């Protein structure tokens, strides 16, 4: 199956912009979706497809894609954005499966 | 209110079986594709499998580690999706989440997304 690679940890100063990336061959064919997970909580969908956001998700979260890399950009990071972030996409192996990245722990300093 | 509520988790010995349920409300369940995602203690998210709607053939797909041991089914009359787990291993210990599975495409690029999540149910496989 395909793999999606994320940096294990990223930090950002309060109010600054941070980009969290996700790399994998499947991203050349399929868009990624992005999820935020805080300790003890279920994941929350942040962005999917061509930069679509579910209702209620602040517009400081945006998704983009180029080649084999998908990115989640947080513009003006807030203290409450400190969390784990995961990408996923459809598997490109020809099977109708889903693959997740390993996750990125974001620290807001 | 759109909601998913999982149940059925617990402690089971290696080699045992368990059946998880996920009750849906607040949306048209029979048209929804549903998936299961798990998270081992201190680890990341792992897709387990999904089931499409009856209109889409109720087809299922599974991750390699659970294929031939786990089975996903649904009862649209009860707005419920199930995860039958057999031959359980210690590596199956995790929180199991039920999710809706949306799909779409944009200029030929296809995508899946999991927009509604339950709170999860914990499965512990241990002797």
Please report the distance between the alpha carbons of the first and last residues of chain A: 36 Å
Oligomer: heterodimer
Envelope shape of chain A: globular
What is the makeup of the main sheet of chain A? 6 strands, mixed
The residue ranges of chain A in which pLDDT falls below 50 over 5 or more consecutive positions are: none
Please tell me what the overall shape of chain B is. globular
Average per-residue pLDDT of chain A, rounded, comes to: 95
- Strand elements of chain B, count: 11
Number of helices of chain B: 0
What percent strand of chain B? over 45%
Q: Provide the residue-averaged pLDDT of chain B.
A: 97
Q: How much strand of chain A?
A: 35-45%
What is the percent of helical residues of chain A? under 10%
Distance between the termini of chain B: 39 Å
The total strand number of chain A stands at: 10
Q: How are helices and strands ordered from N to C of chain A?
A: EEEEEEEEEE
User: Biggest β-sheet of chain B, characterized?
Assistant: 7 strands, mixed
Alpha-beta classification of chain A: mainly beta
Greatest interface: A-B, 30 and 28 residues
List keywords for this structure.
heterodimer, A: 109 residues, four-stranded antiparallel beta sheet, B: 127 residues, mainly beta, 11 strands
Q: How would you sum up this structure, described in words?
A:
The complex is a heterodimer of chains A (109) and B (127). Chain A has 109 residues and is mainly β. Helix content of chain A is 0%, strand content 45%. In chain A, strands 2, 4, 5, 8, 9 and 10 form a 6-stranded mixed beta sheet that branches. A 4-stranded antiparallel beta sheet of chain A has the order 1-3-7-6, with no helix packed on it. With 127 residues, chain B is mainly β. Chain B contains no helices and 11 strands. Chain B has strands at 3-7, 10-12, 18-25, 33-39, 45-51, 60-62, 70-75, 80-85, 94-106, 109-113, 121-125. The mean pLDDT of chain B is 97. Chain A binds chain B through residues 1, 29-33, 35, 37, 42-45, 48-50, 54, 84, 86, 88-90, 95-103, and chain B through 35, 37, 44-47, 50, 59, 61-64, 97, 102, 104, 106-107, 109-115, 117-120.
